[in-house]
Write a structure and sequence with these properties.
TIM Barrel; about 40% strand; about 15% helix; alpha+beta; globular; 44 strands; ten-stranded antiparallel sheet; 13 helices; Beta-galactosidase, Chain A, domain 5
Amino acid sequence: MKIAYKVLPVFLLLAVLCNYDALAGTYLLRSPDRKLSVKVVINDSITYSISFNNTEVIKPSVIAMRLDKQVLGYLSDLKKGKASESKEYNELVFVSPDHYSVIFRAYNEGIAYRFVTDLKDSVKVLSERAEFNVKGDAGAVLAETENYTSWELPYVEYSSVASVNEGKRAVTPALFTYKNTGIKVVLAESDVFDYPGMYIKKDKDKIIGNWAAYPTKTVMGSWGNFVSVVKERADFIATTSGKRAYPWRVVIATDDDKRLLTDRLIYKLARPSRIRDISWIKPGKSAWEWWHDAMLPGADIPSGMDNRNTALYNYYVDFAARNKLEYMMIDAGWSNVYNLPAVNPKVDIREVIQHASSKKVGVFLWCVAATLLKDLNANLDFIRDLGAAGIKVDFFDRDDQEAIAWMEKIAEAAAERKLMVDFHGCTKPTGLEKTYPNIVNYEAVRGAECSKWDYTANPRHHMFVSFIRMLAGPIDYTPGSMRNKQKDSFKPVDPGLPSTLGTRCHELAMYVIFDQPLAMLCDSPVEYEKYPDIMNYLSAVPTVFDETKVLSAKFGEYAAIAKRKQNEWFIGAMTNWDPRDLEIDFSFLPAGKEYSAEVYSDGREADRDAEKYDHKKMKVNSTTKMNLHAAPGGGAVIYLHP
């Protein structure tokens, strides 16, 4: 029954949306599908607990904020509940006479809460208390760190919360799993602006939020002395406006692994777009020279990092144009890392961009965050006047309040000049790409670059990335390797031509399974052009889609997803190191319509030679079922067109 809440008294709406006992200060807010509920208890503090299908997954947890002038949430007289509903969520707002409120929302996907203040002056946030009391028998999969500077991390599995390292930070999203019920719980945040990013850590028997304190002294250091490094921090985490909404604290819960692959709660909670005209923002695929050290074995042109010049970049542009790639990413080396307008004399960057424009290829230009910010407006004007389509901004290496503000400032200033942004060396997304849709990607993932140095970017890792990191938003994993290895034949290579762990079809499936509006083709053009059938697929696969269907999935093990762009479908399937047979059911196709299918699957010897693949063409319709065998670290892709 629809609720016309505008004409209902508050107490009646409360009774419809949630159970409550006003005298005891206890409220129970339910999601629209009634599967999720959050119980809020308000007395001398604010506590919440969360249940999924009547099973408690978050035990009573305290929330509060300590400002320099008052405390939000302790000894609180939050007694006035305002309830409302929408198609997506039910909401309960508690208002304090001390000029602040607390909002709870229950979505089908999860529960979120945030503090909102209406104070006259600016405030210092001395600390925030955010407890997430996951039950001790839950297992955990965490990306752990001992600093506040990195998000490109492998995942560590724990059999129980009790075994999690005490005091060690984990980045969010962070996943916990209840083995007896199959319920997965993800801790995350959304709509982070003018505030530091949240980590979690174990504190005795609790999981609590943790934030970097405000920086008071920084120096240039780290990589090449072009990264802003914090040397001293204040005794508070933020100084901010007294009139503002603070970030959403998010708990996602489900017993259906498929839903983790399509969950958009973090995006939904973010502020709406501030860009009216988005017609110039165009996702797409990009050629890229950095991963393979700009090496073109057998090409009739000098190549390699020492030969990055006008002719070499034009070669990449021509490759992109021939193969219907929308962009060329020009990485470090085209200009001075300390002085952006000081262009490498070997590179006529204007000529390269003009040549690309004549071929209908856009160009992204790499830069260092600290250098860009030295004179943001002048540097962005310079890049715009060169004719670039966008920027890749690297080496933030922080997510304290100052660094978070940098990212929004760059996105806003870039949007004013119709420049797209690819953030690297940065914190995970929390919905800023919704507010500024010119942000087309974020790194914040242990990606293909790590194959140059170690063994951490592997099929097991990919299956955690798909179910955990991707909940936050898009990832610039930079897939596309054409040198594919099984465990026993892989070795990191740097410098030189690197390879990757997993089969070639596993690599191709990333273009469907991973959310990447700007998708790199990381390998050498000469490698792709050895395989016209694969290049046909890479030319055709989009980077954004109109519809998504998860065909099958099991957390950390495998996933098969079908995505539609207009009247074409693309299916991607990936497995971890376990070989398996995956049945593809085409019942998602419209009845009575036949499609031509191009199937790329692991070859018979792919368990030994990961580059082996089979390519076949066939006709399918909504009644077709297909069995695909995935080798260890394997996968498959299917391109469907009428």
